[in-house]
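Subject: design request, 109 residues
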């Protein structure tokens, strides 16, 4: 199980990213920031995980890609990603991403 979002907008703020994701004709707000207390993944809908963690991957058409293994921490109003690795890489490649994947079944990897 997993989700494959299209990134329609991703804007950098002072210390975080705020953007819009599309999935099955639904639009979701995404917030990507550095770790405050711990790595975090939250979603605006329930997710039944096969694992307690999910692989979060951002990629683009020119081969740019970053991924991090994040613990799923439940539901939130937005898609929330707290990861230093993803935030810092996104800062250097901000306009190059068009896809956000969340993968929780590692049997095919």
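Subject: RE: design request

Done. Sequence follows.
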């Amino acid at each position: 199980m997993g989700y494959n979002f299209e990134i329609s907008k991703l804007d950098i703020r002072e210390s975080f990213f705020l953007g819009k994701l599309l999935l099955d004709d639904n639009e979701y707000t995404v917030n990507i920031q550095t770790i405050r207390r711990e790595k975090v993944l939250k979603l605006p809908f329930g997710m039944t995980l096969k694992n307690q963690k999910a692989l979060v991957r951002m990629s683009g058409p020119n081969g740019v890609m970053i991924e991090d293994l994040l613990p799923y921490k439940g539901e939130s109003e937005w898609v929330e990603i707290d990861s230093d690795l993803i935030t810092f890489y996104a800062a250097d490649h901000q306009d190059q991403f068009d896809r956000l994947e969340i993968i929780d079944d590692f049997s095919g990897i």
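Residues 2-103 form one domain.
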